[in-house]
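Hello Y.,

Per our agreement to keep a running log of every chain we model this quarter, I'm adding this entry. I've kept the format consistent with earlier entries: sequence first, then predicted structure.
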Amino acid sequence: MIKTIFFDIGGVLLEIDPERTARHWSKHAKIPVETVREFFPMDIHHQYERGLLSDREFFRAVKDALPGANGLDERAFWEGWRLLVGGETGASAILNRLLPDYDIWLLSNTNPRHILKDVARRYPFFKAVKGAIYSYEVGARKPEPEIFVRALEIAGTKPEESLFIDDVEVNVEQARRLGLETIRFVSVDDLKRRLRAMGIFRA
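Predicted structure for the entry above:
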């Protein structure tokens, strides 16, 4: 019987648009947007999401990874970074409907800049849920098993009593291997259908 539901944030509750960030950086760095995409250091991004880099270190590492004497300054960098996260999806309304009957937690690969200085202030569901497990706070990121183990510990729940909802298949697969019930998010309508089939969503 499901008692606890873990929601991913980006791509499930909030829209993600890397192209807006790439275009903004391209404009201010005065380099082609294709170059921004090619040289963005994903390994550095993962370190930032694990809490291993400060905001300043992350900015410097990304700027240094872009070729040439690019003109990307710190203000433009963070303006572009903010554009990565868009508005709420319809899944946030589902989350709100489930709040009275389940312990709802957020489980996300994310970074302090987005959480502490941006999205958590803009969207009410951050304050409505039971709590959150963020990769930068626990030092591990999905699909690493450690973040799921910590999430279960922090939420005080068991795998067989927990449901994990995420849009990335490898994350869903890892959670399933650890014994959690899972749903891969592909659309709001599909999520409603899957939750109804589990007896969780009745609207």
